[in-house]
Amino acid sequence: MKNNGILRQVAQLGEPVLRKIAVPVSNVEETRIQQLIDDLLATIKDVHGVGMAAPQVYESLRIFVVASNPNPRYPNAPKMNPTAVINPEILSNSKDKEKDWEGCLSIPGIRGLVPRYKSIRVRFTTRDGKVVEKIYKDFIARIFQHEFDHLEGIVFLDRLESNKDIVSEKEYQKIVTRK
Ligand SMILES: [Zn+2]
Which of 42, 57, 126, 173 lies 20 to 30 Å from 23, alpha-carbon distance? Predict the structure, then answer.
C-alpha cells in the first residue's frame, strides 16, 4: 500500500462545501484523485475516524473512504481493510432501520442516535478502476450511508428523529464504555 498521504484540514459544519452535491469522478487513475484518496486515508487515521468523504476535505467529488477499526472514538467498531469508494450507488436496502450512535469529524463535540438501514447493496468504483457490487451490514452499512450522505450535502443531524437523540461527546463516551 502506498503511504504518501498528506494530512488535510477537515471542513466544519457551516462550510458551504458540506452542503453541496458532489461531482462524479470521471477518471480514477488521475494523479490528483489517487493523491486525494491517500490524503483521506492518512487524515482518517490521524483523527481516529472510521469514514471520511472528499467534501470534508474541501473536495466536492464523489469519493469517500471507509476504514472501520476499533479506536478511542469508536471502541466497538469492527476491523476492516480501509476501502476507497468512488461514484457509489445504493442499489437496494433492507426494510428495517436501526438507531445507533454516530459522530462526524465535521461536527465535533456531539453524537446522535441516527436511524439507518441495517443492510444495503451497493455498487462503486474501486481505486483501481474496477466496478464492484457489495452487501454491507450493520456498522459498515451505517458508515457507508453516513459517508454517502456527505456526497449529497446531508449530515447526520438531518437524519435525527428528534433533537433529544443528541448527546455531548463526553456523555457518549460514558455510554459506550458502560456497554
Ligand atoms: Zn461525517
Answer: 42
* 110, 159 Cβ separation under 8 angstroms: no
pTM for the predicted model, two decimal places: 0.94
- In angstroms, what is the C-alpha Rg of the chain? 15
Q: What is the rounded CA–CA span in Å between residue 155 and residue 18?
A: 8
Distance from residue 30's CA to the centre of ligand 1 (Å): 25
Whole-angstrom Cα distance, residue 111 to residue 168? Answer: 6
Catalytically active residues are 147
- State the distance from the centre of ligand 1 to the C-alpha of 125, rounded, in angstroms: 21
The closest of 93, 109, 74, 75 to 144, measured between CA atoms, is: 93
φ/ψ of 106, rounded to 5, equals -90, -5
Is domain 16-178 classified as CATH 3.10.690.10? Answer: no
Contacts of 97 (CB under 8 A, 6+ apart): 115, 116, 117, 118
Q: What is the pLDDT of residues 69-90, one digit of tens each?
A: 888 777 788 888 899 999 999 9
Q: Is 14 left (phi over 0), alpha (psi -120 to 50) or beta?
A: left
